[in-house]
Amino acid sequence: MNALVYDIEIRRCIDDGRSPREINSDTGREYEYCNGWDDHFGMGIGVLCCWDFLTNRARVFSQENVAEFGELCKQRQVVSGFNIHKYDNKICEAYGVTIPEYQSFDIYREVLIAAGIDPNGKTPGGRKLNDFARVNLNIQKIEDGRNAPKMWQRGQWAQQTTYCLDDVAIEASLFRKAINGTLIDPFTGQVVKLELPEVVRGLVAK
């Protein structure tokens, strides 16, 4: 299958404007923060992991060689992930890698559209990646994503990579279910009737 699924874990924490900034116990100083959810360059790329369906292999990239990931994307028909239109794709773009919207299949976004929810509006509850993993795969994420940049700043790069690879494995399984018409919406408990984009329908047809 000429597709890949990817996920990014960032270097800097995101200040939500509500919670106090946390202290890195290793240094005794505040963790580094970016300037909010729109500061995609400031987030940095701690690690970018993907599952390549065409070669049946996992790939790991860093901020320093993200251009290589961009070249891989150009060789694949579909690039997928969870909430990538609002998040991962924009981080990639900030670092010089543009994933065209026609090529990008965002599982989360497609579920919202199928549910009649504006995917560009406020993020509704009950549909986090962990919710999809629990309902569809009977598993849970191994870590909270908010801790990922703290891992990077503590030098726990192996832990951050392991977490990212685990999320990619979940998303790859959800992608298969989505294109096969068996993905369950954790909010409704029902199978989602997705209107697959043409590029994905072509993938399924093959």
What is this entry, summarized?
With 206 residues, the chain is an alpha/beta fold. Helices cover 36% and strands 18% of the residues.
Give a written overview of the molecule.
- The structure is a single chain.
- By secondary structure, the protein is of the alpha/beta class.
- The chain has one domain: Nucleotidyltransferase, domain 5.
- 36% of the residues lie in helices and 18% in strands.
- It has eight helices and eleven strands.
- A five-stranded mixed beta sheet has the order 7-6-1-8-9. Strands 2-5 form a two-stranded parallel ribbon. A two-stranded antiparallel ribbon has the order 3-4.
- Helix 5 crosses helix 7.
- The longest helix is centred in the C-terminal third of the chain and has 24 residues, at 157-180.
- The radius of gyration is 17 Å and the shape is globular.
- The model has no long low-confidence stretch (mean pLDDT 92).
Write down the secondary-structure element order: EEEEEHEEHEHEHHHHEEH
- Strands of the largest sheet, in order across it? 7-6-1-8-9
Radius of gyration: 17 Å
Q: How many separate helices?
A: 8
Strand content: 15-25%
What summary fits the major beta sheet?
5 strands, mixed
- Spans where pLDDT lies below 50 across 5 or more residues: none
Shape: globular
What is the correct CATH architecture?
Answer: 2-Layer Sandwich
Average pLDDT figure: 92
Distance between the termini: 8 Å
Q: Please tally the β strands and state the result.
A: 11
Class of secondary structure makeup: alpha/beta
Helix amount = 25-40%
CATH superfamily: Ribonuclease H-like superfamily/Ribonuclease H
CATH topology: Nucleotidyltransferase, domain 5
